[in-house]
Structure formats: C-alpha cells, structure tokens
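Data availability (excerpt). The following record was deposited with the supplementary files.
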Amino acid sequence: MKKNNVINNKSIPFFLLAAIHSLLLLLLLKRHKQRNVWFLFLTNTGFAYLFEYIILNLFRGYKYKPSIFKNRHVDAVFGAIFSQALYVPISATFLTLCKMKWYWKVIISIFYYVIEKFFIWLRVYKVNWWKPVYTFVLLNVYFYISDRFYLAFSKNRKWALAITHYLSIEVIYVSFLYASAIRRKVRFGRGNYHSWKEHFIIVPLYSLFISFIAMRNSGKPGLIKRISLIVYQLLIDFTLAHWGFLKLNTKYLLGALPVHIVMTFLSRFIYIKVYRKQGDGSAVSNVTNDFSK
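Predicted structure:
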C-alpha cells in the first residue's frame, strides 16, 4: 500500500491530537493501577470500534481524510483508528478513572464537537448524513457507559469481566489484521477482485467471531488447547478461502498465521490478567505453567 508523505497539512491535526491523548494515557498509567487502565481503555476502544463499524463501515455516515494512504478506504479507516482507538477511549478512560463530575463530561463533549467542526473546515473530515451534534449527544452516553461499566468491572461482576476479556481480544485482533492488510498480507472479499470496501466490512465480523472462539478457549490451560485453537482458526480461514472470501498464499502465511499464533497465547494471558484478583502477581507464572500442563 503506497503512502503519501505521512506528515502533511492534513495529517498534522490527527497526529497532534494523538500526541495529546497519548500523554493523557501515560498520566493514567502513572497514577492508577495499570490493570485497570489497560482493560478499561481496551474495553472502551471495543465499544468505540463497534460504533465505528456500524456508522462508518456499513452506513458511511462520515469519512476521515488524513491523506496518509493513497487508497481512500484505507486512509479513512486509518483516520477512524485515530479517533476510536485513541481520542475517544482515552478521554473516556481518563474521565472515569479520575472520577470527573458530569459537567466535565459535557465540556469534553463540547470540545470534540468543536474539533469535529474544525476538522470539517480543514477538509480532513467529511460528513454525509452524520451531524456533529450527534457526536456531542452520543459522547455523553458513551462516557456514562464507561463509568457504569468500570463500576461493574471493579466489583468483579462476571458479565463485566467477560465483556472486558472479549473486547480486549477483539481490539488487538482487529488491529493486527488491519496492520496485516496495510502490508497486503491479508485481504478479505468475494471473488478474484477483493475491494477494500468489502475487506473492511468483513474483517470486523471475522475478528468478532474469531475473538469469541479465542475467549471460549482461553479459559482452559495447556499447550494442547493453544495448538487446537490455532488449528481451528486455520480451518476457518481455509473454509473462507474455499467460499471465495479469503485468498490463501505466501503473503497470508506471513500475515494471518503469525497473528493467529500470537493471539492464541495472548488471549490466554489476557484471561489470566482479567480474572485474577487485584494485587495478585501470578499472571505471568500461570501462563508459563501452561507449557507444563
């Protein structure tokens, strides 16, 4: 995938906001338990990804134009990653963990409303049927969900732990697959011509399904369970290839297969970290013990 100049007039606002929000994340990691920060951040990112899939991928409500990649679909999704994997979830995580009052949530929502209007003026963001006021309203709902969800997570509610486990796997999985697609290692779509539009509609559904399988499997220890999950994922890929939704070649082996292997063991690690008791430092040793079971 050919790139434009990464740093250009259109991409600078995206990178500037990314730097600011990254500093907020570092501040959170310094002041709060890293387990809480990372899992709330990943869960909030998962919620944002689900929203973005519906509004951007399926219904084309708006389009980002950071002009980093020449292909407009890839460029738009990359811009969405800035928003839904950095700006919005980091802000929600910060507001929740710092226990900010409701008026701060309103202020931050107004800030994003203004930023959206500014991006439209800069022509780095285009709205179709979407309106900035929707962003203002839904962000307040999103911040409320973040607060309520974290309350349940901190009380070790089973449903909250399960959602955290699942969305953490899914966010990492879909991010890996996006990186593999950019490097032209993995491409989903029907027939010989796989369009990027089709790819970005299929990949989130694929990652949701694969992540669910990984979540169900990761509660069971042992190397055999890890290998069986990799084999099962490969069978799914071969089935999709047989149906014409995935092209299997050397690039696939260099792209998707390493992702499956890494995510199989990472999903087990995430399981242990999510379900272990606060303050229990045995997660790494438990994963290591898998090889001897």
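Summary of structural features: The CA atoms of residues 113 and 136 lie 6 Å apart.
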